Structure to design on (185 residues):
């Protein structure tokens, strides 16, 4: 059997066959108070409470988790769920603006966790769009590198990559037009 570094060996107490499961990863802090994680992270109320996570952006396609009831604060929207599949033909860019607004609002109240099933493609794509929109980074490749430096397993699918590059190009282009029109007036 070949070793796959993505999976760790978890011995099974019932038989001699090893049980291969993805290793458990903690959420990754991308910016102060902005975390990138997976489904397990989103259901770990101890970690969420310890890190003051009051807003959860769920990109996994799964619904509401009963564990989140412990986190509710009156009049503060805590969970925003989107059903986005991790396929290269899935349109993710139409959700960028609403996700960015949710993250901004959440950071005013505490920390935000953006998660999908494994924290590898969908949720990193939303985080990268956030970084591009907020002009923290120069372009898609710099934003991807920044996120991967913090969470090595990130691997944005080709369709999301194309949409992020297009999103960056369009926001960069419109910003340049605004700058030019400001200088002309």
């Amino acid at each position: 059997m070949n070793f796959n570094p993505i999976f760790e060996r978890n011995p099974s107490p019932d038989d001699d066959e090893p049980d291969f499961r993805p290793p458990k990863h903690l959420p990754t802090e991308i910016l102060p108070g902005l975390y990138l994680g997976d489904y397990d992270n989103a259901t770990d109320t101890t970690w969420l409470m310890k890190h003051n996570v009051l807003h959860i952006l769920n990109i996994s396609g799964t619904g509401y988790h009963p564990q989140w009831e412990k986190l509710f604060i009156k009049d503060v929207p805590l969970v925003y769920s989107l059903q986005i599949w991790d396929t290269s033909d899935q349109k993710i860019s139409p959700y960028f603006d609403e996700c960015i607004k949710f993250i901004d609002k959440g950071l005013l109240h505490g920390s935000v966790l953006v998660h999908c099933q494994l924290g590898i493609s969908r949720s990193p794509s939303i985080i990268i769009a956030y970084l591009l929109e907020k002009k923290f980074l120069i372009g898609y490749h710099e934003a991807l590198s920044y996120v991967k430096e913090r969470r090595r397993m990130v691997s944005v699918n080709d369709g999301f990559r194309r949409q992020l590059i297009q999103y960056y190009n369009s926001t960069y282009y419109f910003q340049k037009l605004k700058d030019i029109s400001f200088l002309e007036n």
